[in-house]
Amino acid sequence: MNSYSRDHALVKRCLSGERQALEEMVGLYEKPVYNAAYRILGNPDDAADATQVVFLKTFEHLGQYDPKYKLFSWIYRIAVNESINQLKRGRKQQPLDDQEVAGTRSPEAALAADDLSREIQGGLMDLKEDYRTVIVLRHFSECSYSQISEILQIPEKTVKSRLYSARQLMKETLQARGVH
Amino acid sequence: MLKERTIFLINADIDGELPADDKKELEVILASSDEARAMKAELLRLNNLLDSVPDQSPPADLSEQILSQLAPPPRTGGFSLAGLFSSFQPASAGLAFAAGLLLTVGFYELSPNHQSAGDTASMVGTMVASQPGIPQLLENDMFLKGDGFSGTVSLRENEGIYVLSFDLDSDNSTEIEVGLDRTGLSFGGFAETQGDRDEVVDSVAISGGTLRVVNQGRQQFAVFLRENGPEKDIDAASITIAFTSDVGQRKYGVPESQ
C-alpha cells in the first residue's frame, strides 16, 4: 500500500468514527506539527495551543481532504496557517525558555547546546514569517522543495528563491548574534 | 559577485535536489571559483548549525488533551434516531410498497437508556445492537432492509459538524433525498467514500434545503452538515430522509413533512 492509499484509508477510518484511527493520526503527526509550530511561534505554550487547534481543524474538515495530496502536506498546511494566524493575533513570542529539554547531555554540553538553540530560535524569530516558514519546513521538518510547494501552495521556483534569500538573512542574523 | 545560477546550483546541491547534469556544472564552477567554494562552505556551516538543534518534545499530555476534545461528551438529550426517523410515514395508502418498506426500516439507539418498547415494536428486519468498543463518535445507526434495497444510515456529530453516512446497496436506481428544513443545519459537503464501480454516485444535487443523490449498486457516501450559526437552535430530529426507487415510480418511504 503506497502512502496515498494509507492516508486515504486512515482518513476513511477517521470519518467513520473509528477511535483508534483518530489516535493513530494524532500519534503520527503530533510531534512534527508541534515542532513546526514551535519553530514558527517561538514558545512551547503557543506551540501546544496551535497543535491542538490544528488537530481540531483537521478533523473538522477531514471530509474536505483531497486524497490527491499527501495527508502530511495537508496537515502541515493547516499547521503553518494556524501558526501564522496565531502570530497575527499578536500572541506573545518568547524564544526558548526553561522547558527546553537538555536530555542526557552533560551539564556543560547541555548549557552550550541550549545557548545555541536559543540563539538559533532567536535568529528565526528575527526573520519575516515567509522566510521563517520556509526555513522551518526545509530544515526542521525536512520537507523537499515539492512538499514545501504543496504545503504553502506556491510554485517550486518561488520556494527555491525564498529559501535561498531566507538562508542568506538567517546567516546574517546569526552572525549579528555572534553564532555563525 | 556570484551569478544567480551559481547560487541556485549551490543551494540545490546542499538540499540534495540537484540533478546529475547540474551537479557536473557545479563541480566545474567550484573548481574555478574561490567565491563559490566559500559560499558553499558557509551554507554548509549554516545547515549543520540548523541540523544540530534538537527536536522539541510536545507536552506529555498533549495528545490526550487533543483526543479528549475530539470525543464529544456523553449525550444527555439532543437528537436520537428514534426522533429522527419517527416521522417516516407511507406516502399514501395507494403505495402499498411504501408501507411494506417502512416496516422494514429499523433503528436502534446506541444508548440503552433511550431504548423503549415503543421504539422497536413495529419493526421488522435487521436490528444490530451496540457492540463493545464501538467508537464514541458513532451515536446513531439506522439499518435498512427491503426488496432489492438494503444498507445503513448513521448520524454523528462532532464539534458542531454533523455527518450522515450512507452505506447502501440497491438493485435499481434509487434517489435519496435529505431535507434540512427547520433543522438549523445546512449542507456542508458531500464525499463518496467507496463504491463498487469506478464512478461516483450517479448524480448529486442540492436545491434549497434538499439534497438529492441518485445511486445504484453498492455505494458509501457521507453528507456533511453544518450549523447555520451559533445563534441557531439545532433540531437534528427534523432531518428527513426519503428513498425513491425508479421501479414503477414507487416510493419506498417519505417523511411526514413532505
Model description:
The complex is a heterodimer of chains A (180) and B (258). By secondary structure, chain A is mainly α. Chain A has 2 domains: 1-93, Orthogonal Bundle (Rna Polymerase Sigma Factor, Chain: A); 106-180, Winged helix-like DNA-binding domain superfamily/Winged helix DNA-binding domain (Arc Repressor Mutant, subunit A). Chain A has helices at residues 3-15, 19-41, 44-60, 71-88, 107-126, 129-140, 145-152, 156-176. In chain A, helix 6 crosses helix 8 (156-176). The longest helix of chain A has 23 residues, at 19-41. Mean pLDDT of chain A is 85; it is low at 91-105. Chain B is α+β, with helices and mostly antiparallel strands and 258 residues long. Chain B folds into 2 domains: 4-51, no CATH class; 81-255, Immunoglobulin-like. Chain B has 7 helices and 10 strands. Chain B has helices at 4-14, 20-32, 34-51, 62-70, 81-85, 96-104, 117-120; strands spanning 88-89, 105-109, 138-146, 149-158, 161-179, 185-195, 203-207, 210-227, 240-245, 251-255. In chain B, strands 1, 2, 3, 4, 5, 6, 7, 8, 9 and 10 form a 10-stranded antiparallel sheet that branches. Chain B is elongated, with a radius of gyration of 29 Å. Chains A and B meet through helix 2, helix 3, helix 5, helix 6 and helix 8 of A and helix 1, helix 3, helix 4, strand 4 and strand 5 of B.
And the CATH topology of the largest domain in chain B?
A: Immunoglobulin-like
Order of helix and strand elements from N to C terminus of chain A: HHHHHHHH
Which sheet architecture does the biggest sheet of chain B show?
A: 10 strands, antiparallel
**Relevant CATH superfamily of the largest domain in chain A:** RNA polymerase sigma factor, region 2, helix turn helix motif
Unreliably modeled segments of chain A: 91-105
* CATH-scheme architecture of the largest domain in chain B: Sandwich
Total count of domains of chain B: 2
Overall average residue pLDDT of chain B: 64
